[in-house]
Amino acid sequence: MSQISVNNLTFSYEGSADAVFENVSFSVDTDWKLGFVGRNGKGKTTFLRLLMGQYTYSGSITGGTAFDYFPYPVNPEELKEAGAQLADRWKPGCEQWRVICELNLLGVDAEVLYRPFGTLSFGERTKVMLAVLFSGENDFLLIDEPTNHLDQMSRKSVKDYLAGKKGFILVSHERALLDACVDHILVLNRHSIEVQSGNFSSWEENKRRKDESARKENAKHLREISRLRQASAKSRTWADRNEGTKIGFDPVEEHDRPTRAYIGGKTKKMNSRIRQMRGRIEKEIQEKEGLLQDIEMVADLKVMPLEHHKKTLVRAEHISLRYGGAEKPVFEDLSFELCRDDRLFLRGVNGCGKSSLLKALLCQAGYGSPAQGDNPELFIEKGSLYTAPGLVISYVSQDTSFLKGNIRDFCRKRGLDESLFCAVLRQLDLDRMQFGKNMETYSEGQKKKVLIAAGILTPAHLYIWDEPLNYIDVFSRMQIEQLILRYRPAMLAVEHDERFQETVGTGFVDIGSAASVG
């Protein structure tokens, strides 16, 4: 057991005017299970890379330990190689028997190590990488969002696995995962960084109490600042009024009035006293402003759902979906109904057909063909899929690769008000500096916020969201939850965040051999 000490860490990317970290200091224990949270773009992944020695920085990071990082990089050529071959490259000297033991803890058969890595599912790839990561000794492990793109069952096995480990930093936006796996929280606030004992829920409760107290203190300081500014303005008015008495003086007509020299001398003394007083007031204002608390404010978002005259918006009756040329259907015998007040989540393992169902529904409602590019045509082989007449849908895709060009062009193509769209992005904490950049340079979390903002601003009867929260930070997830609970739009979604499902969902559609609403 040892300590990692960060002292006066300062770092900014080349060409950037803003520092990612500025004079940051804290310590963590290598025996901790440390959760790492903060807004998108605040520097979580950057900090992990600083620990790995990938960037030059000022200040110091000290600790008698080696670091290893998840996910390991895999290039297209390496996808043809077996995991056992890649393991030696990822973690030189790792012993295969240890990797197999870790795979057993993850509930995965060792044979996945000997298959081409590209043939494995996302869940299997994640588990092979985690098994290699934890096969060493004495490393402090840096785990960056291990559950992205994993289905519910894979997430549970990863969560159970990490709950039995220690000696790591876990970057995750999934609250259920953090609650199950960590005993300390490292938080990037807006203007500070803090380390606290406990899991995410205990930190959140402490933060709620602390912020409530801080808001009261802030209100008091703001009232005092306002009073001081009024006093400063009043003193300036007195000086200006006294200075003005020198103007238009006639010594013949106004022989009983004090001379200009007398007034000037008096005004000079008064101005000197006022400057001193204003200096004291401004100093006191700065001190009061310094007492204002570093509160993470979650702005309220708005959505504009339309109300359809039909109660039932979508109804599936024993449908089977098949891609053209495929031997088997994607799924069979699926039945469910979605009404105006429903928010249903699709559940099932990766590859069971959740996204395919959403595409078929969009096609049925007149939103284009589900066949895209080289993808074969998707069609309903059996059963019937009903959508209400004139149904308006707002769709958030899980794919962000099509986002190109700038915000202005995106708004023009979507028919969105640019200023309103940018205002929503600011509420989701996207930095104004990003507005002038092309979207292909955005991080995945920033791209997701673009799609969510567009989805929110599109008035619709039904909101179809396909894994909207991948890469989205905890605070933005909380904003989106509040939005949905307040406006209660009809929704059909694929999302694996347990807390999000529990908070906003009204039911589930389980896709399997005989799926139905649950």
Short account of what is shown:
This protein has 518 residues and is an alpha/beta fold. The protein is built from 14 helices and 18 strands.
How is this fold's topology laid out?
Elements: E1 3-11, E2 21-29, E3 33-38, H1 44-51, E4 58-62, E5 66-70, H2 83-90, H3 96-105, H4 122-133, E6 139-144, H5 152-163, E7 168-171, H6 175-181, E8 184-188, E9 193-197, H7 200-244, H8 260-290, E10 312-323, E11 331-339, E12 343-347, H9 354-364, E13 378-387, E14 393-396, H10 407-414, H11 418-427, H12 444-457, E15 462-466, H13 474-487, E16 490-494, H14 498-504, E17 507-510, E18 516-517
Parallel strand pairs: 3-7, 3-8, 5-6, 6-7, 12-16, 12-17, 14-15, 15-16
Antiparallel strand pairs: 1-2, 1-4, 8-9, 10-11, 10-13, 17-18
Helix pairs in contact: 3-4, 7-8, 11-12
Describe what you observe in this structure.
- The structure is a single chain.
- By secondary structure, the chain is α/β, with parallel strands linked by helices.
- It is built from 14 helices and 18 strands.
- The strands form four sheets. It has a six-stranded mixed β-sheet, with helices on both faces. The protein has a six-stranded mixed β-sheet with strand order 14-15-16-12-17-18, sandwiched between helices. Strands 2-1-4 form a three-stranded antiparallel β-sheet, with no helix packed on it.
- Strand 6 (139-144), helix 5 (152-163) and strand 7 form a beta-alpha-beta unit.
- Helix 3 crosses helix 4, helix 7 runs antiparallel to helix 8 (260-290) and helix 11 crosses helix 12 (444-457).
- The radius of gyration is 30 Å and the shape is globular.
- The protein starts with a strand and ends with a strand.
